[in-house]
Amino acid sequence: MTKEFLVLNLVNAITPNGDGLNDVLNYSDLKIKQNVSIEVADRYGASVYKSTDKNYVWDGKVNGRSLPTGTYWYVITWIEPDTKLPVSYSGWLLIKNRD
After folding, report:
1. Tens digit of pLDDT for each residue in 80-96?
2. A Pfam family for this UniProt protein (predicted)?
């Protein structure tokens, strides 16, 4: 019996300044999973971003506007295709803008 495991390798800092380096949070490794969603909260726990978009990247913007530099918390959830079990993965993310 063979079992495959996915190890997420997410950066914990993005600098969305357009230089092509760490401009986005890329969680596209999860495109093989079902019902992927992400929620990002500020340091007070207020939700600042939610998505179930199949693009699997986030540029640190909400409604086209950059979030202020700071530390944010994220939760990514999905359903495992083979077991149908829900999975939740959380962590922190530093967004560093020029502002």
Report:
1. 998 999 999 999 999 99
2. CHU_C
